[in-house]
Amino acid sequence: MTAAVFFGCTFIAFGPALALYIFTIATEPLRIIFLIVGAFFWLVSLLLSSLVWFMAGTIADNKDGPIQKYLLIFGVLVSVLIQEMFRFAYYRLLKKANEGLKGINPDETVPSMRLLAYAFMTLVIVLLHMFWGIVFFDGCEKKKWHALLVVLLTHLLVSALTFISPHYGINLVSAYMIMVLMGIWAFFVAGGSCRSLKLCLLCQDKDFLLFSQRSR
Fold first, then answer.
1. Dihedral angle at the C-alpha atoms of 25, 28, 31, 32, nearest 10 degrees?
2. By CB count within 10 A, which of 26, 44, 118, 189 is most buried?
3. Quick check: 34 and 94 in contact, CB under 8 A?
């Protein structure tokens, strides 16, 4: 049972992201490099967030419960802000690199329920970061600063939902609603349309079919 829960939660959390990697990134070496660089930026942002959290925790080491709760909220807000700052820095790096790459082609009596909730939440966070990246970069490219604000606010909102962790239904439904809306936005920002989506679902998209044949 433990192994089944482990593999089930793992594939729920990372299965779609792995599929996206295999079909859209793994066949292009340049995309793999960009993926690794993006992961590096994200890890550095988490490192800085951890340093802020460590310093704040050291200062408030012997404080009472309410102070610790506010400290946790402060840590989440700072972490989101740092991650979005690094997302913008990553965009600026890609922008500069592109100039040189133009010539390159209720009761928790059942632990598995809590683990499943964590798995589904991890899945939505992974997909949201992908959608946020698309919308964020498009906003930077087209000077649509309201898009950057939406990314920041939705990131804060999804992070704040984790504070109501015992109420898994509320935070999961809310997070998935945000994910669907951001996914639709990212789809159209990336050049998608209702017609292209219909052709792809019906396996009539010639560009997609040609790309699949070349990948094989």
1. 80
2. 189
3. yes
Hey, what are 85's tokens? Answer: 């700052």
The arithmetic mean of pLDDT across residues 65-81, rounded, is 80
**Per-residue model confidence as pLDDT tens digits over 36-49:** 888 888 888 888 98
> Is 83 exposed, middle or buried, given 0-12, 13-18 or 19+ CB atoms closer than 10 A?
buried
Q: Is pLDDT at 143 greater than 80 in this prediction? A: yes
| Tokens describing residue 46 | 């988490």
Would you list the DSSP string of 29-97? HHHHHHHHHHHHHHHHHHHHHHHHHHHHHHHTTT--HHHHHHHHHHHHHHHHHHHHHHHHHHHHHHHHH
- How do residues 104-125 score in pLDDT, each as one tens digit? 444 444 445 667 677 788 888 8
Q: How far apart are the first and last CA of the chain?
A: 37
